[in-house]
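Honest question from a wet-lab person: if I give you the sequences of every part of a complex, can you actually get the arrangement of the whole thing, not just the pieces? Trying it with mine:
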Amino acid sequence: MAKVRCQAVGLLSGGLDSALAAAVLKGQGIEVHAVFIEMPWGCGKSGRVRAVAEELGVPLKVILLGDDYLEILRNPRFGFGSAFNPCIDCHIYMIRQAAGYMRELGAEFVFTGEVLGQRPMSQRFQALQCVEKEAGIPGRLLRPLSAAFLEPTLPEQQGLVDRSRLPAIEGRSRKVQYDLARRLGVTSFAQPGGGCLLTEKHFGARIKDVLSRGCEYIQATAVLGLGRYFRLDERTFVIVGRDERENAKLQSYAVSGDVLFRSETFPGPVALLRGDDSAETLAQAAGLVQYHSKLRGQPPAEVVCWRNGPVSERRTVQAAELAYEQVNGWLI
Ligand code: SF4
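Yes, you can. This is the full assembly:
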């Protein structure tokens, strides 16, 4: 094993590129510490990140996305991508988090798995330069996979990283990365695609909907990645689970004050209501549970509801009769 030259902090996503960046630096004797920024609504690769860190043999620190990220979603300085994904601001945010950990450890630099030209918005040459400028660690942000096309960073200038041994990868094809992964024995990464929910338009519409009504806590957005989402009125939305996994998650992601619904007399979904809990909206939420069961169109059934929190008194609500047009009008 190569002698340890210095410490570095790398952003690990669970995907191929960041795993390779870490493996390449480790191969040069750098002591790598991985950071994963966890988004509350989950991400396609988040389940993989621990397996990747374990395979690479690097310690992993998980940092939860902070409430300050909501400000980025409200007003990203560098705009959105094709959906509600503020990728450039998001990269800056994540690199700043990693930089904080770098300082805490006394490490020399931060690195990412970014590849020049791989993504149209955030991995153009100018975007990489912009992120570096805004991240607040001049000269200490290394992109090992594309370093050959970028200005040498301090660790390269100081000989801590051997620039001549870094791969020179650019563009959208992943062939070179797959070959490199085979050579380095990196196998646990998630396949590309199916990643960040912010790149999905329907999810973006939900986030936008709650932000426009004054959401202050990022954790309160965790439920938005689940189920069918209905905006009943200015204050109130209801989410209806689509399967048992979502039903269980709705209950575990509910925050204090949310009202949960489930039928005990017929098979049906779990629903979560946040906002106004008047008799009318409770009946409408119960109606959505019945509407998404085999009892759709039948006389109003009874649905049990309880408030999420330490004391949860259960009560029974009679479902409102809902027409297709009304349900569709609420759907976002
Ligand atoms: S795809 Fe999502 S997680 Fe990745 S940079 Fe863009 S907004 Fe951030």
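Two things worth pointing out. The pocket of iron/sulfur cluster is lined by residues 85-87, 90-91, 122, 196, 198-199 (CB under 6 Å). Residues 39 and 65 are 5 Å apart (CA to CA).
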